[in-house]
Each structure stands twice: as structure tokens, then as C-alpha cells.
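Re: export button greyed out
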Amino acid sequence: MKVLSRNCSHYSSIFVVHDKGKAIYKSSSSLNGILDLENEIKGYNWYNNFRSNEIDVSVELKTNHYIKIKIQYIDALVPSINKGYLKNIDYIELAIKHYVEIWSKLPSNFNTQPIHGDFSIEGNILFKDHNVYIIDWEHFSEQEASIGFDAMYLLFETMCIDRNCSKLVLNHVVKMINFLKQNNCLDDVFTNNPLKSTILFMKKNRHIWGEQFQKMPVLNFSKKSIEMIDAYLNKELSV
Amino acid sequence: MKIQQEGILELLDINGSGQLCLDVDSSTPSLAIGMVKRGVETYIYNNDRRIESNVRRQLELDGVESQIFFYQEGRDDLKFDFILLTQNKINIEALLVFRKLLNSNGTLLLNVNNERLKKVEKLISILGFSEFQIYLPFIGKEIPAFILPKDDFERYYHRYWSWKTVNISFLINKLIEYLFFFRLKKTWFIRNSIVLLRK
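Workaround output, generated via the alternate export path:
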């Protein structure tokens, strides 16, 4: 039985239909939506190159003005970001570890690397028995960002939605940044003023998100919060 | 907003072919345009030629080059895979006419407004379709954020309104909950409900 679970939400022009237990269909009849879904297929294909168990994705229907893609249904857990940063700490660590597993396989002789563009535990990363699946690749972009952007986005988005900038949270962010650095998955650009650098990249590359740019939670940090968070992170990272 | 109206078309099993008969009024040319974009040969069943020209104009604006046909009553040779009807109140006589126009496995999509759920269930059960499914829209005044089968509505609703703390918002939401359950008790008028009927 079908459920229309997204009707062009968050300024997108994409429909999402869940056929329970069978498949997920994403479709669009607008030019931008079609481009996003073609991009999504590119993203999945890229991601599947690094996975032992691929996620099945195929084009179900394509006309000159419409596309519908079929994505394998994955029976996995979707954490609730609304529970806050600290209650999602295990998922955050699993997601960052998975990020390192994938992105560390990329050749390091490029200045920029592909990005997922919405690397978020809010529905875009699924967890099942310590296996991690990254889904929703519509903002995928090749050779766009310095390595580490997606991981930084995940950390700051979870922090932003939780509105929790406590020392406990910030120290965990420091731990994750150090983990990324140790595994050569964080460019130096993100080690100085990490939050400001993440936001700056987004503002300079807003074409990646199109009209959905305005929905990105990380942009909601106030100037004061950015300065406070970066000051703390800079201090701890320099130790 | 125009593209969001096409959302209900995603409930149909469209595979890029087939024929659609559409009873449109001036407010819903987007459904006809949506079906054309999905590769479905579209016939408009309406006595008002201005609607056809309105759809054609919209298709031109969207850069969609396709034929829209005008269904003429009495064309018994034509049978349709899909029929879309937008009705405020269920019109049994009209439904029986359109039922005859469906292919043997055809699907009739009914968009019902301002009708009691209990009455909708009662009326469609006597129409003789092999199966039917009622969908309810959720959130959004004119355009639903998502559309759920009636049976799933309660489960999704609980998930949506799971709040982590009890506060004023919680109490307000409890009131909304009461209203929704009132609605589920079949006494509430349903706006924009979708009924899929398979012949």
C-alpha cells in the first residue's frame, strides 16, 4: 500500500512515495526536480562503488518532463534528531565512522572531493545492526568541497537542532574532528573556525542546494553562537 | 503549489502509457498537465472547451508538446486505464457512468471534498468495485504535506505528534488530537480525501 510521504516538502519539487516494505519511489515533473533526481542516481552509483552490499536504484519511468526512480527499501532505524545531540551520540559516531570508511578510499591527490550535501541523521542516514546506509543523494556533487564538509555539517546540524552548545556537546565535536583528522578525512580549512568555515562553504556554493538552501538548519546559528562555538573549538583543537 | 497538486497522481500505478479520462474544472488543469508529463494519453471530459484551451496553454508554457484530447460522449470504443474525478459531494450517478468507461483493471481516482468519511465508505461500498482504498491528507490547508491510507493515519499521527516534554504546546496538541480522532470517528467532514477504486 502506497503512502505519499513527501509532497514537494522543504521547497523541493520531489514527490516521495513509500510502498511499504517493498520500495521507495521518488519522482518529479519539474526541471529542477528532474535534475535533482538524476543527481541522486549519480550519488547512489558513486556511493555503491565503495559499498560491499549495494543499494539498488533504478529509473522506473522517464519522459521528457518527468522522472520516477525506484530505491531499494531498507528496513533500518532512523534516529530522531529531536532527541538531541547527546542522546544520538552513538549514531553520530557510527555515521562519522562510516564517513571515514567511504571518503578515506578516495584518492587524496584532489583538492576537492564529492559531497553528499545533506549528511544528516534526520532521515538521511539509516542504521541497522552497526551497518550504516546513506540515502537521499539529491544534493550530491562531485569535486565540490574540501574533504570533511559533510561530517562537519552533520555535527553542526545536530547541535543546531538541539540548541545545545554545552561543553559536553562541544567536547564531543572536538573528539569527532580529531578522529576525522587522524584518518585524513578533514581538510585544514575546517580546523580553524570550523563552524564559520562550514557555513561559508555553503554560502559560496548555494547552487548545490538550489531553493532548498534556505531550509538548511546550520544557517540558523546566530553570529554570536558561531563566534562562541568556534572560539571554544579553536582553543581545544590547538591543544 | 501547482506541482504539489500533482502529488495525488503518485498514488496511481503509472508506467508511461495508458489512457486517462479526466473530469476537470478550471481549478485543476494541473492534474491533466501532470498526467501528460507522465506519458499518459489524456482525454478531458468536460463540456467547457475553455478548460481544454486552458490546459493546452499551460502545457505550452511548461514546454510540454503533447496531444490533449476532448472526450465526446457516446465514444463507446474508448476505455480508460485511469479516470480522475474531482467531486465535492459524491455523485453516484456520475460514478456509475465513469465506471463503465474504465478498462477491466482500470483505476478510478476520486477526490472528495467536504463529505463525511462514514458516508464516503458507505457509498463506495455499493458501487461494485473489486477493491477500494481511502487516503487522507495530512497537514496543509489546500495542499497536503503527505497522504496516508486511512488505516495508517492514526499510527503516523502518533509518530508525528510525539513530543518529548509536556507543556502548553503538548496540551494544545492534545486538543488537536481530539479533533483528529473525532474526525477518525467518521463524523468529521473530510477535506481533499482521495479514494482509489479498482474495477
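Chain B has one domain: 4-151+188-198. The button fix ships in the next patch.
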